[in-house]
Design a protein that fits this description.
Number of domains: 1
Order of helices and strands: HHHEEHH
Radius of gyration: 28 Å
Distance between the termini: 31 Å
Strand content: under 5%
Structural class: mainly alpha
Helix content: over 70%
């Protein structure tokens, strides 16, 4: 039985609607926090790949600039051809490993981006309408280097919850009711 002095008592009359809103609100929070970590991993991987890509050419040029005179010096000193060949193969192998490392890092970034695209679909299929581009605007890196949801997450979450409650109840639900059923997690 509901308290007649509560102006929002009608919204709490149906346990099924309250529990459905709470369940979807919990899912929204779970997916938002999971996406925050995932988005941070994607951004960090992109930064690593860009840093490697930007230094790759310089490293190869410097390696060649140092390696070619070294090989010429070995040939001038009439060092055994096997040693010169081994030094050349080591240098070429090191260059190949660098190029391969950059390629693997780039492939990792592409894989994360594909997973990021499927994340929104997974959330949608569970019944959570999460515009990821808007959620990304609420994510930032703190001074400790961790990816966190910023203060702008609160209004974003409130808007998503309003949509959830509207869909479940069929009428606009006051913010006070939403806050009582789905308080902002700490």
């Amino acid at each position: 039985m509901t308290d007649s002095s509560d102006p929002f008592a009608d919204f709490f009359a149906s346990d099924a609607k309250v529990s459905e809103c709470r369940r979807q609100g919990d899912q929204l929070d779970y997916f938002a926090h999971a996406y925050c970590k995932f988005y941070g991993d994607c951004r960090d991987a992109e930064q690593r790949a860009n840093a490697l890509r930007s230094t790759q050419n310089l490293t190869i040029v410097l390696g060649a600039a140092l390696g070619i005179p070294f090989l010429v010096m070995l040939a001038y000193l009439r060092v055994n051809q096997l040693i010169i060949g081994a030094v050349f193969m080591l240098g070429a192998g090191a260059g190949y490993l660098l190029v391969e490392h950059v390629r693997r890092e780039h492939d990792h970034v592409e894989q994360l981006n594909r997973e990021r695209e499927s994340f929104g679909l997974s959330a949608y299929l569970t019944g959570i309408d999460m515009p990821l581009d808007q959620l990304e605007e609420t994510i930032a890196k703190n001074s400790a280097g961790h990816w966190i949801l910023t203060a702008s997450y609160g209004p974003w979450r409130a808007e998503r919850l309003r949509q959830i409650f509207q869909r479940v109840y069929g009428v606009p639900v006051p913010g006070a009711v939403i806050d009582r059923i789905c308080p902002l997690p700490s």
